[in-house]
Design goal:
The complex is a heterodimer. By secondary structure, chain A is an alpha+beta fold. Chain A is built from 26 helices and 28 strands. In chain A, the strands form 5 sheets. In chain A, strands 8-10-7-11-9-12-13 form a 7-stranded mixed sheet. Chain A has a 7-stranded mixed sheet with strand order 23-25-22-26-24-27-28. Chain B contains 5 helices and 11 strands; from the N terminus they run βαββαβαββββαβββα. The N and C termini of chain B lie far apart (37 Å). The chains are: A alpha+beta, B alpha/beta.
Chain lengths: 740, 242
């Protein structure tokens, strides 16, 4: 097997990010030394980003199956049946490195890419969420990054007609030089009309649709996403892609129109590694070969080399394997939407990818080594030095606050707890006419038109917990996102995750990764929710300093009856406030310690998965029986912040509450500790006994805390603050810090 | 009667307008930007979105589409045209309504619920509302700041062409209640012949109690009543000024 181009040198392989061993392995697999174009293909297919070579062995342990699962990991996105002949398709994906280098385009194309992963499967996207991590707001670059990322998410999402209905944002100096942008999309599809990326039928045409190919984003996957940052990172800006949401909107409509017909055999987004990965992966998963003529590829500029065309990550492009004979019909649909569409190749039976340009063959490689031949590394792992010391916390050294009310106000104004309205009001959360509960409650709730159902969506991760104990932290991300869904009236259906970590070649990072995956696995098994899709983002480091482990979890839940959707804020005076679950003397990893005492240490709150299950069960039962007026997960800032949010987070005037305190623990732990498996409910007085019965049957602690009353929040003799002051501290903090 | 909702490339709330009309029991058809035919509809809706990407100026390219040629003729003949958000921008760019919509004062996209006061009720679009009724309606736009030269503004006021103004919950047109910097808190205007109406809020997202409330339904009901029973008469006038 030979092509017309000369073989590369070992030095060129190194420049492409391949280790000497990997290069040797590839040469052995293809029986010769590749040429430059072929090396480019290998380098992206074998990159960490595309091959999961460091994570694959560890991820095998995750639960991915279940009776409702229609598609687990391995496709563009996961799919779960929701009844009525419908399914939800969803996935979360990182765009961390591009967003740090070029925040607007990095975040925008992150949204574009995850949308394509979902509509590629035939699903109409109905909801976007995102999970963002920034450095401290005091850091000189942070406000620029926040502004750029938020306007990039808005600029793209608002323009494609998919509402952004929720998400989470945290600020921590550990992300000063490596922010995280994780974008999530959920789509709705007929369960019998899910499209996949498995090619079939020798002789079937390969059709390129969407935007023209340009020089942007070359080596985004291999050089940008699969290496650490250093002082030269700014020079990588040209590897960041540029998004065009208008074209994406046309592409959504054209693809969904096409998918109503029977023309499509397989379809895949040209995402990371562009034309290369889409053609290699589709042909390889069908056990076939593929032949492509680059002269037929629509191009934005002249003189693009084969190397550039194959590795470009120009956005808003898809590759379709169509039924032979349907070429014109397919192209007509795209031209109706004023999009490019060209037949660029055919499926073959030789197990090869052959690429021609200018009449010459420039690539002739066996598909199997490209798609499946990347090494699988069992990387060494060991806890970081000082992990035990990090977990040591002597509460006797932590003084009690002098003024609990002031402490509460201060916590409400920390950017991690403060209202994120400044951010989410920049997102269209309404388009599509499905948004029942938008941003700002425990979970977003989207109705499913034509049914009585709704989908609840939450995304969560407390990376401080994960730093202190990645196993417990990852479990917490799962159970807390599930609790958010339950508080909104939903039943958890399935998970997608985005595992953001440092350099996996370091044993301590690998240890964090393995511990986190173990936590995800145990929690998902206990809750009975499968992980159907996900993404791993390694090398989140700058100059050798890693981010805290951040296994972001997005939970999707189902409400059988949309009328049972529940929001977090109190609904009216006279309602009784009840706490499900127990408060322990746990302050390790709390926002309170970090914000007020600048202490990040200890062990995160413990989780007993069976208790968690029972607490969620009681909440669900109570909502089903119509007992509940509001439900709110108790999380960062603890019980005092949770109750305060119930008072102030609603759309109307803020309400007050009278809370009795029954502390047999430190008062600051009772108020601000973050014990898990707790939910604050409010309900009419007449239902309290019924709730107690439900809790007793499930062996769940159920404590009447007090009552919604007046315009002040009073907690024992400790806190007495007007609801108006609580609201203004919470509502204005982020805007003031961003615009002040 | 029958409604037509135009889809430009980049229209986003076209399906939502069709959905709202369906929820209200109104028959409606989709109109395609490349077609000149309006399919005999009685009221044309220009929906929200980013027509042609709005990369030049919001609504600037849509006016050149084949369907807009027909819409301009339809409006000139007295046909009812309702432009929502991007549709309002298209109407201004097409010259069917005076003035222009420029970037929000904050320079940011804003998605939120605002209060609006119905200023005139003797129009085909607002007859179902009460005098000075305050509505809760969603807005979501980056370029919703209504501007016009002083003479145009005065003419709009004198001729009672301002149909909708941003107000606070108590109905006062204050500066704080103005979400985007629009002159005189203008949220929606009609033309001199009162058959073309453009507004930045999204009534189609306020037609169901489950999603966004029902305060927007009156605009559609007004058109239905006008075309069935004739024009509403003027009940009372809102005091001029802010």
């Amino acid at each position: 097997m030979t092509t017309t181009l000369p073989p590369v040198t070992a030095a060129q392989a190194t420049e492409h990010g391949l280790t000497p061993d990997e290069f040797r392995r590839f040469c052995d697999a293809i029986g010769r030394v590749p040429n430059l174009v072929e090396l480019g293909i290998c380098s992206v297919m074998w990159s960490e980003h595309c091959s999961y070579k460091s994570s694959r062995a560890v991820l095998r342990g995750l639960p991915t199956t279940g009776p409702r699962v229609l598609q687990g990991p391995g496709e563009n996105a996961g799919a779960i049946a929701i009844g009525d002949g419908l399914a939800v398709v969803f996935k979360i994906e990182s765009h961390n490195h591009p967003s740090y280098i070029e925040p607007y385009q990095g975040a925008a194309t992150g949204v574009g890419g995850i949308l394509r992963d979902v509509f590629t499967m035939g699903a109409r996207p109905i909801a976007n969420l995102n999970s963002l991590r920034f450095g401290s707001l005091d850091h000189p670059r942070t406000r620029y990054l926040v502004g750029g990322v938020v306007s990039g998410i808005g600029g793209y999402g608002n323009c494609v007609g998919v509402p952004t209905v929720g998400g989470e944002i945290y600020f921590d100096k550990a992300y000063n030089e490596n922010i995280l942008v994780n974008a999530f999309t959920l789509g709705l599809v007929r369960a019998d009309r899910i499209f996949r990326a498995k090619a079939a039928g020798v002789g079937n045409p390969v059709i390129y649709v969407g935007s023209k190919t340009g020089r942007d984003g070359i080596h985004g996957a291999s050089l940008l996403a699969s290496a650490e940052f250093d002082e030269t990172s700014d020079q990588k800006r040209p590897t960041v892609q540029v998004g065009d949401p208008f074209t994406e909107k046309l592409l959504i409509e054209a693809c969904l129109e096409l998918m109503e017909k029977d023309f499509v055999i397989a379809i895949q987004d040209m995402g990371a590694a562009g034309l290369t990965s889409s053609s290699v992966e589709m042909a390889a998963s069908g056990g076939l070969g593929i032949s492509i003529d680059l002269d037929q590829v629509p191009k934005r500029e002249t003189n693009l080399t084969p190397y550039e065309i194959l590795l470009s990550e120009s956005q808003e492009r898809m590759l379709i394997i169509a039924r032979a004979g349907a070429e014109q019909a397919v192209m007509d649909i795209f031209r109706k939407w004023d999009l490019d569409a060209e037949v660029i190749g055919t499926l073959t039976d030789d197990g090869l990818i052959r690429v021609r340009a200018g009449g010459q063959e420039v690539v002739q490689l066996p598909l199997d080594p490209l798609a499946h031949g990347a090494p699988v590394y069992e990387r060494p792992y060991a806890p970081p030095a000082g992990q035990d010391e990090l977990q040591r916390l002597d509460l006797a050294q932590i003084p009690l606050p002098g003024d609990y009310g002031q402490t509460l106000l201060r916590l409400l104004a920390t950017p991690n707890i403060a209202s994120k309205r400044w951010v989410f009001r920049q997102y269209d959360s309404l388009v599509g006419s499905n948004t029942v509960v938008g941003p700002g409650s425990d979970a977003a709730v989207m109705r499913v038109k034509g049914t009585t159902k709704a989908i609840a969506l939450s995304v969560d991760c407390n990376s401080r917990y994960c730093l202190l104990d990645p196993y417990v932290g990852a479990m917490t991300a799962v159970v807390e996102s599930a609790r958010n869904v339950v508080c909104s009236g939903g039943e958890p259906l399935g998970v997608t995750n985005c595992l953001n970590f440092g350099n996996p070649e370091k044993p301590e990072i690998m240890w964090q990764f393995r511990e986190a995956v173990r936590g995800l696995s145990d929690a998902c098994n206990a809750l009975g929710v499968p992980i159907v899709s996900g993404n791993v983002s390694f090398y989140n480091e700058t100059d050798g300093r890693s981010i805290p482990p951040t296994p972001t979890v997005a939970m999707v839940g189902l409400l059988a009856d949309v009328s049972q959707h529940t929001t977090q804020w109190f609904k009216g005076e006279g309602d009784v406030i009840v706490l499900l679950g127990r408060t322990r003397e746990e302050l390790g990893g709390s926002e309170y310690l970090a914000a007020v005492r600048d202490v990040v240490r200890g062990t995160p709150p413990w989780i007993d998965l069976s208790v968690e299950m029972q607490v969620q069960h009681v909440c669900t039962q109570a909502i089903r029986e119509g007992l509940v007026r509001s439900a709110h997960d108790c999380a960062e800032g603890g019980l005092a912040v949770a109750v305060a949010e119930c008072c102030i987070a609603g759309p109307g005037e803020p309400l007050g509450a009278e809370i009795e305190i029954e502390a047999d623990i430190r008062p600051d732990a009772w108020l601000f500790g973050e014990s898990q498996s707790r939910i604050v409910l409010s309900l009419r007085k007449k239902y309290v006994n019924r709730l107690r019965d439900l809790a007793r049957d499930a062996d769940v602690s159920c404590t009447v805390l007090g009552e919604v009353r007046g315009r002040r929040l009073r907690i024992g003799g400790l806190v007495d603050v007007s609801a108006a002051d609580l609201r203004s501290a919470w509502a204005d903090a982020l805007a003031q810090q961003m615009e002040g | 009667m029958r409604w037509g909702v135009v889809t430009f490339p980049g229209s986003l709330d076209d399906a939502d307008a069709l959905h709202a009309l369906e929820a209200l029991g109104e028959p409606a058809v989709a109109l395609w930007h490349k077609d000149r035919s309006l399919q005999g509809v009685d009221c044309v809706v220009l929906p929200g979105g980013f027509s042609y990407g709005d990369y030049l100026r919001a609504g600037a390219l849509a006016r050149f589409s084949p369907v807009m040629e027909s819409v301009v003729g339809f409006a000139a003949a007295g046909g009812l045209v309702l432009g929502i958000c991007n549709g309002f921008q298209v109407l201004c760019e097409s010259g069917l309504l005076p003035g222009a919509l420029i970037r929000n004062r904050s320079l940011s996209f804003i998605c939120t619920t605002v209060h609006c006061r119905v200023e005139e009720t003797d129009t085909p679009f607002t007859g179902a509302y009460g005098h000075a009724e305050v509505l809760a309606l969603p807005i979501k736009h980056g370029e919703g700041c209504y501007v016009a030269d002083p003479a145009t503004l005065q003419a709009l006021e004198d001729d009672r062409q301002v149909l909708l103004r941003y107000v606070d919950a108590a109905g006062r047109a204050t500066e704080a209640a103005n979400p985007n910097g629009s002159l005189r808190n203008i949220a929606g205007i009609t033309n001199a012949t009162r058959n073309v109406f453009g507004l930045m809020p999204h009534p189609e997202h306020a037609c169901e109690a489950l999603c966004g409330g029902v305060d927007g339904a009156g605009f559609f009901r007004s058109v239905r009543a006008t075309l069935t029973d004739g024009l509403p008469t003027r009940t009372a006038s809102v005091p001029p000024g802010l």
